Model the fold of this input.
Amino acid sequence: MADPWAFREAVGRWAAGGSCGRATELAAELGLRTAVLLEGPSDLAAVEAFAGLRGRDLGAEGVCVVPMGGAMSVGRYAGLLGPPGLGLRLTGLCDERERRYYERALRGARAPLPGFFVCAADLEDELIRALGTARVEGIIAAEGDLRAWETFLRQPAQHDRPRHPQLRRFLGTKKGRKIRYGRLLAESLDPANVPAPLDALLASL
Done:
């Protein structure tokens, strides 16, 4: 049985100018009906962790979550996976500042923007707001990153900044950190206080 990672890799090669053959084969083997387009791997980690928290097996439901390597790739991926390409239903997340770009790109791929759910800044911002800064700092400490966090806070650029943007910036200061914390923050969500875009995305699948 094929796995979603193989499909993601095949789509990545296709998006880079390769053949569509392997992606087409894997989509059929996996029984895919929906592609969730996300900006990058930290969003992927958060969405899959949250789906697991809700007891959902997206792969078994014919859903594949695809990181695009940047928001500017949405037109390319929507064309490959949506109506002009594999014919999958498209959904996903986008940031408010990129909403208009998504609207144009999705119109070009004959995919409706209402299938995409908008984050105020980005998904990390939504997760920090939902959890609260004290809870996020507790997760950082539990992960053994307290010293790195305290060192970060001593940087002159961080003086007098509110805690929320400090935390958001900290998550992006080391390779792989956003991916790891994307998963950890999503797994720590209170079921009664879930970011609206994330909740709506999962409910739509």
Remarks:
- The chain has a mean pLDDT of 95.
- The longest strand covers residues 89-95.
